[in-house]
Amino acid sequence: QVQLVESGGGLVQAGGSLRLSCAASGRIFSIYAMGWYRQAPGKQREFLAVFTKGGSTMYADSVKGRFTIGRDNAPNTVYLQMNSLKPEDTAVYYCAADSAYGLGPPDDYWGQGTQVTVSS
Asked: Mind listing the pLDDT tens digit for each residue in 47-59?
């Protein structure tokens, strides 16, 4: 099994920035990709970005150019740097991981989520 723990959520004003982190533990050798999703109240969960073991990335159009995913300095950790935040970015942000090879939305393992609130 793989455990994922998100951190870094909080309250920020529109135009500001936040950096989320996701730390993986357990059978980390089985992970090929880690990524981020979000779910706003009353909406479906939305894929945002994925980062693979080989360093490849993919982004949803809604966040391309504003959000950046990458490998953190901390071991087995990926981050999501969010810039130019908008009130519509308010959501619970989830980390996910996958063992399957390929550049696609990961969905084998999930974190508990961290709240991001952007005030206008």
From this structure: 999 999 999 999 9
